[in-house]
Design brief:
GO terms for molecular function: diguanylate cyclase activity. Residues 252-384 form the GGDEF domain. Keywords: Membrane, Transmembrane, Transmembrane helix. By secondary structure, the protein is of the alpha+beta class. Helix content is 66%, strand content 8%. α12 (357-373) links the parallel β4 (344-350) and β5 (379-382). 37% of the residues are buried. The termini are far apart. It has two domains: 1-220, Up-down Bundle (Rhopdopsin 7-helix transmembrane proteins); 231-379, Reverse transcriptase/Diguanylate cyclase domain (Alpha-Beta Plaits, 2-Layer Sandwich), CATH 3.30.70. Mean pLDDT is 89; it is low at 388-392.
Length: 398
Amino acid sequence: MDTGLLIALLNPTIALALGAAFFVLWTYQRHRPYLAVLALSYCASAPGFLFQYFTLPIGMVLTKLVSNICFAIAGCCLSGAIVARYGRKVPYVGIGVLAGGGLASFCWFLFVAPDLTWRILAMNFAFGGLSLLVGAELRPVRNNGPTEKILFVLSLLSGLNFFVRTLVVVIAHGPFTSYDGFYSSSYWTTALLSHALLSLLIALCLFTAAALDVMKALKAETHTDPLSGLLNRRGFEERAAQLLRHCAMARFPVALVLADLDHFKALNDVHGHAAGDRVIADFAAKLRSAAGARGAAGRIGGEEFAVLLPLTDLAAARLFAEAVRTLYSAGGVDGLPAGTKVTASFGVAARSGEEALEPLMRRADEALYKAKKNGRDSVRLSYERPETLVVPEPSKAG
């Protein structure tokens, strides 16, 4: 087998392998459709390269058209998938204009004014435009993580490759008048090798991004309570410790609110566990809505909840607890008999100095105990502060 054929088969082999890998990933992560689009992209580029080297029975001219249509589909899919992966709105119009314009120019220089050099320039400039469009879409998120930054740089490099490399080679070794000797030319060799390298780098980066997605999802599962949708005790303690560190460095106030559903065991016994689950889910939804994105809300026990509120002093935390208590006690819960009243009790404590989470929770729990003891459906505050250990000075011998 000659070297030219080996080089010609390099990109189709790589593309099919990557397409199969992304397809397998998608079968395990159907909720991430961009993986299926990536599989389509790499699979579409494989026949594009094959039809550059092998001629179909329809003739060379139409074979080249089919090849470049495959390349255009691959470029559009790859661009859209990368942008979608990072939560950006896919610029369908821009992608369509660049790919469609490139194909239209290619057809003009294929059928109307045949010119191989201009066909090369038309398609390469279209793909360069797609690469830079992806780079522009990734620019706002390029500092969000390593994969965003790497893909942003690769998009720029890909754009330079399509523009600069093509122009340099065409100026140095062109113009190309026919396909005789074209596939052994410096243009074709550099195109294949640069495409293989960039394809592998982009695919490895996207594989890494997919792996990070899986790890993030697994971490979320281990830190989330499935019934309430809030953080579980482990997740809450980790998130709360992080917030306490940040607030200590910035000297921001922090308050903790503990809540406990009143008479929950009796409600379970009378109405059943399914009704109890609905009560927990309903209360969690109200708590999450009130806390918003700034607070850390968790279900830390069967019917016990906690919310850590940064930038909140004792008075503001009391207003928060009273608002949740009033909202919850005033409404009903779907699935419970009409007139069934469900309430909750609250204990509130504000952080003192650089107080750790454990003593802060202990003081809030003591306030919650007072609320439960004094009739429930109420809010109680902790005015106590952690005891400060005073070390006496050693006595001096007279």
